[in-house]
User: Fold these one by one.
Assistant:
Number 1:
Amino acid sequence: MDPRQFLADQFIEHEQTVAASKDSVGPAFVTLAEACTRSLNQGGKIVFFGNGGSAADAQHLAAELVVRYRTNGRALAALALTTDTSILTACSNDFSYDDIFARQIEALLRPGDVALGISTSGNSPNVLKALEAARGLGGIAAGLSGRDGGKMVGLCDPLIVVPSTVTARIQEMHILIGHALCDVLEQRLRPGVSV
Ligand SMILES: O=C(CO)[C@@H](O)[C@H](O)[C@H](O)[C@H](O)COP(=O)(O)O
Ligand SMILES: [Zn+2]
């Protein structure tokens, strides 16, 4: 395997995923941006969660909103459920790994908040359980997924499904879409000069 050719092929696969996503994710993105705007305007918050690379995405996106993305200004209410090792280990140890996000949703989610689950397969049980909990509490169960959307279909509204079966390509689109979401929210709720 020639690494340079391999990298070139990865770029091509990425570009194909971008092109396919451009045609399909727009409507759900608009719905997600409107839901997040409404929630933040009403004193609500956005709660991100996912496993592995998606855990990193959750933390990354929460930081953009709480701290800054492109403009300085007021803090926007967001958090990631992937960061508190005491909660994560106690919940896994005493209950089940499947409960690590749902338990935090039960503790923290208020009606009108947006719970944004990130799962490339759409089938991670801990993500699904948290989305169900969010719905039961009057929150908005939103999703970023891939493949065929998995079990997030029918559970999430809105649900953004990246049209790819390759986990890495799906994740690359998730962070692009997540950055775009932060940008829209910042332009609306933290307008200012980009620095
Ligand atoms: O980052 C990667 C692969 O690129 C992995 O860490 C990946 O996120 C993990 O295998 C996750 O457990 C996959 O879960 P999900 O996206 O299917 O919900
Ligand atoms: Zn990864």
Note: The mean pLDDT is 97.
Number 2:
Amino acid sequence: MATLEELRNQLDEIDNRMAELYQMRMDVCQQVGEYKVKAGRKVYDRQREKDKLADVASKVQGEFNKKGIKELYSQVMSMSRKLQYQRLVEAGALGRLPFIQIHSLDKENARVVFQGTEGAYGQAAMNQFFGEDVNCFHVRTFRDAMEAIEEGSADFAVLPIENSSAGPVNEMYDLLDEFENYIVAETILPVVHTLSGLPGTRLSEIKRVYSKAEALMQTTRFLDDHSDWQRISVVNTAIAAKKVLEDQDKAQAAVCSTYAAKIHGLEVLVDEINDEADNSTRFIVVTNQKIFLKDASKISIEFELPHESGSLYNILSHFIYNDLNMTKIESRPVEGKQWEYRFFVDFDGNLEDAAVKNAIRGLREEARNLRILGNYSIDGQI
Ligand SMILES: O=C(O)C(=O)C[C@]1(C(=O)O)C=C[C@@H](O)C=C1
């Protein structure tokens, strides 16, 4: 029987040949890339790759090896594509991304919309970003805000997309897909919930608590200590505060901010009732123009994938091979296609970076319906 050293020597010899063949193959792929730049051909040829995988699988013995060589060749061809995308980008074949670079946002002359009513967290986020004197109005739903932006009755909307304890605002992801609006900035608002009621209300008098569903979720521990209170979800925390004031019934209370309580003349009965002390909500600033700030450092995209094994894995490799740091991924069901998903990915970068252009080139060819949703930074700071 051969010793381990002898076997390793054999492997080294095989690997030397494989490395040499890999180098030769990539050199040919480089030429294929140059040909494709000139001929204006697409890099990704799904049928050719399918045929190639079937062909190499037919040349090895046993199911295990057939599966293995297919996986190996999927990777080899994926490297080949990435090399070719680089050539295309170097040759300027990416074209200009249809986003216009700007140096600052005109916050002073902006007309801004938020969802909810006076005292909503959305208003606080808007004031944090645009200042207290901003020219603004409010609408009832997130959809109304997206419509106001799309039709141009507002220049910007400030809308919540994620809470640090309750997670994503799913509806916002669906609306970003549905509307031709783009993210130009984000701002993070610390969210501190209170239990507020009519002045002089005692906790023992309370029977019903109103708030937005997410806020009720974020204060579950406190509310569980008062399990006899009925929890009723309304469209917004500020609307909950308004209702408590209007109904003038001490059996009712609201989970809302100190700001909303003050605006609607309520008394803070218990402060800081969040389950998590560090509770923040990330708001996006949305507009109907394809613009990005010069030094924007984060990109959001969306795409759909076929219902096939390995499709997400293959797509995400574009981030790895271009050294891009992916910071978030969300998925939402694609309407009318059961068990198919639309993915929303955030990653670090600027639309002018070569690595970003490379990745987008690959993603555009290999995923369905790729859309760039925006290139921005926290607080729009540059
Ligand atoms: O044959 C091509 O068109 C190539 O670009 C080469 C290659 C490969 O590496 O084999 C790479 C990408 C294509 O999707 C198909 C095959």
Note: The two ends are 67 Å apart (CA to CA).
